[in-house]
Specification:
With about 270 residues, the chain is α+β, with helices and mostly antiparallel strands. The chain folds into two domains: about 160 residues, Jelly Rolls, CATH 2.60.120.810; about 90 residues, Arc Repressor Mutant, subunit A (Orthogonal Bundle), CATH 1.10.10. A six-stranded antiparallel β-sheet has the order 1-2-9-4-7-10. A hairpin with a 4-residue loop joins strand 5 and strand 6. Helix 2 runs antiparallel to helix 3. The longest helix is centred in the middle third of the chain and has 18 residues. The two termini are about 30 Å apart.
Length: about 270
Amino acid sequence: MATKHENRFANMIWAVTEEAIFKDEIVLDFHSFVRILSGEMKVVQADQSYTFLPGDTILFPRHQLSSVIKKPRDGKPYKAIVLALTTAQLQQYYSKTTFTRPLHYSGQTQPLGSHPLLDSFFASVIPYFNLQDQLPLTIAQLKIEEAISIIRSISKNADAILTDFSDPGKLDLVAFMEKNFMFNIPLEKFAYLTGRSLSTFNRDFRKTFQMTPQKWLTHKRLELARFQIAKNHKKPVDVYLETGFENLSHFSFAFKKQFGYAPSESI
């Protein structure tokens, strides 16, 4: 069972614990700074996947679609500390900072490796979860600024990521959907990330693909799952989460309905 323990500093930081395997689709409105304490986290994106273990630290850029699979490891539950870096906080920080604005931003997840500054920062944060009262706002703000400064000192891409305050512009629908169909997020999010209202997204989608978004997404996810099972010799239990399905039984039912045989028969 998942638990989320906030430390009472204005929802800026929290601890997450998963006792069993848990999958979520994320596309955050803020950057997140994450330290894995125990367990394992697999991050699946359109063109790359990562596996993070205890001691790893990651910067997740906002507006980036990812499937996140968290699981226990070595007899310990998945535990992590997550710090939210909002646009407002970053704008305030950079308004007081002299820097050269980078020209390129890859938009990819940034593994930050190991560094004494990271170890020191997260060690200083853990005791806050035992506080009985609200952490003073001045201290909270100092910790946010400390986190940003550490990220900037470690990652050469930090300023390119953290100073991108723009909303998504209107994107090519075919290219975006072909790249991101495996992410099980609401249509409203797909619409926003392609720079459209929901009604415009639905209209453009039907015109482009000649079917509803829901039908097209299911078809594409099942095709990907069949390829992973038949060609890459993966087991259905290892595939369904990574191809946009919430549970194995629904995946098996939809697979058999589309192809006429069970996914286990593809192996």
